[in-house]
Design brief:
This protein is of the alpha/beta class. It is 37% helix and 9% strand. It has one domain: Arginase, Chain A (3-Layer(aba) Sandwich). GO terms for molecular function: histone deacetylase activity, hydrolytic mechanism; metal ion binding.
């Protein structure tokens, strides 16, 4: 079934290559983090994405931001001091040998956590080596990218290591320790009157929604898999529109989807809904959480989007020519994640890249997909009239919510002055690394020594076969995030 796509954005570089309107953040230390054997989250996927960007020559089309970890003070806009102090001082040794530390960690959903209602245990947010450093680095990436947009020199800023949308003000959740999205949005609010947050991760963006539930200048829109039963995090019903008595009611918008949605049905919802959101809310900047677990072949979800279908969300929002912050998120078949975020970087830049994956240090991970960037196509998915009808009802309900928001905003605008954009003095040039090294150690080894033996652990994680929760997780109690 053919779909009418919005026009692609213009090429973002001048003809002489002198100006770049996309900036990019990558901190190599993030890829060294290990959540433990059997855990679904593999931060190394960010290094794979970076290596693929280098192989396609896309790194030269972007300005590279300095690696700039966040500070505790930066994170206090999103988290309690008690929680941050715990994260800063928590180590595997203290967790193992100090009962008081272990109890505090469990209260904040860190380490092995037992649900007193069900008796189930989970290990979604393990106590790992270099935990505090990891939190500072991925949150710092999103904050730096947001500041680059605030400075006004770029149209798009990217941090694929960010998008940890589940963390709450005083707790970890769903593989997310600190909520870099909240930190970034609050930085954008220093200049932009209204910020729109859009989430295309397969899991509901609950942490971000909760953080801005009473903020009328922020609208959160989440497209996510939802079954009303046990799919993590269990929130995000279409009827959840925020506090009915609050000033920000209807600025919370949820679009629940069912497994097997696929590209065509997805964009029959995404595009008309987002078009109406843009008309009603009229944002000054947009944040898009690009969780890649909504892709076909993900190990723990089932929305079944193609790489092109996923990237179409970026293409659509990019067409509005507003400052756009792109963040990562979920994604557990790591070769698919790298393909998706590489292609989406190309879309942000305004380039089309070949389907054939170039040879580079990680190319063996793509053998199972025939060394093709676009490993899956919508034509492979099945049709379902029942599913189409259900989604039609969801769309109508969401559009009704947007009509109510439109009426509400008209009244509010008549009663109050509009929040103007603020003048914020940030030196964009100081954020940029003018001589970045584009070659990862794994690429250098590959170039100098030929075939590199990489661990079978990552090869196993790269398989397209979906794995049930009880084969991946210890507790067998619920489906994991992100």
């Amino acid at each position: 079934m053919a779909m009418n796509s919005p026009p692609p954005p213009p090429h973002l570089r001048a003809a002489d290559g002198s100006e770049k309107q996309v900036c990019y953040y990558y901190g190599p230390h993030i890829s060294y983090i290990d959540d433990g054997e059997g855990h679904s989250m593999v931060p190394n996927r960010v290094a794979m994405t970076h290596a693929l960007l280098a192989a396609y020559g896309l790194l030269d089309d972007m300005d590279h931001l300095h690696v700039s970890p966040a500070t505790k003070q930066d994170l206090k806009v999103a988290h309690t001091e008690e929680y941050l102090d715990l994260l800063r001082n928590l180590t595997p040794t203290k967790y193992k040998h100090d009962a008081t530390t272990r109890a505090s960690a469990e209260r904040h959903h860190l380490g092995v956590v037992t649900d007193i209602r069900t008796g189930c245990t989970s290990h979604d947010n393990p106590v790992i080596d270099d935990l505090w450093d990891y939190c500072l680095r991925y949150a710092g990436g999103s904050l730096t990218a947001a500041r680059a947009l605030v400075a006004g020199d770029y149209k798009v800023a990217i941090n694929w290591s960010g998008g940890m949308h589940h963390a709450g003000d005083g707790k970890a959740s769903g593989f997310c320790y600190v909520n870099d999205v909240v930190v970034a949005v609050k930085a954008l609010l220093e200049r932009f009157g209204r910020v729109l947050y859009v989430d295309v991760d397969a899991h509901h963006g609950d942490g971000v929604q909760d953080a801005f539930a009473e903020e009328a200048r922020v609208m959160t829109v989440s497209f996510h898999q939802y079954d009303g039963k046990g799919f993590f995090p269990g929130t995000g019903s279409v009827d959840d529109v925020g506090d009915a008595g609050g000033a920000a009611v209807y600025r919370t918008l949820n679009v629940p989807l069912e497994a097997g949605t696929g590209d065509v049905r997805y964009h029959k919802l995404f595009e008309p809904i987002m078009k109406r959101v843009m008309e009603v809310f009229r944002p000054d900047a947009v944040v898009l959480q690009c969780g890649a677990d909504s892709l076909a072949g993900d190990r723990i979800t089932g929305l079944e989007l193609s790489v092109r279908g996923h990237a179409r969300c970026i293409r659509f929002l990019r067409s509005y020519d507003l400052p756009l912050l792109l963040l990562g998120g979920g994604g557990y078949t790591i070769n698919h994640v790298a393909c998706c975020w590489c292609y989406e970087t190309a879309v942000a830049i305004g380039k089309e890249i070949p389907d054939e994956i170039p040879k580079h240090g990680y190319d063996r991970y793509y053998q199972t997909q025939g060394y093709k960037l676009h490993y899956y196509h919508e034509a492979h998915s099945s049709s379902s009239n029942v599913l189409t009808k259900k989604m039609g009802k969801v769309k109508q309900t969401v559009m009704d919510h947007l009509d109510k928001l439109s009426a509400l905003m008209a009244v509010q605008s008549a009663d109050t002055d509009e929040e103007p954009a603020q003048a914020v003095n940030i030196d964009a040039d100081a954020l940029v690394n003018r001589s970045p090294s584009g070659e990862e150690p794994i690429q250098r080894l590959y170039r100098l020594g030929g075939e590199v033996e990489l661990t079978e652990f990552f090869i196993d994680l790269g398989q397209t076969k979906q794995v049930k929760r009880n084969k991946v997780h210890h507790d067998q109690c619920r489906v994991p995030p992100l």
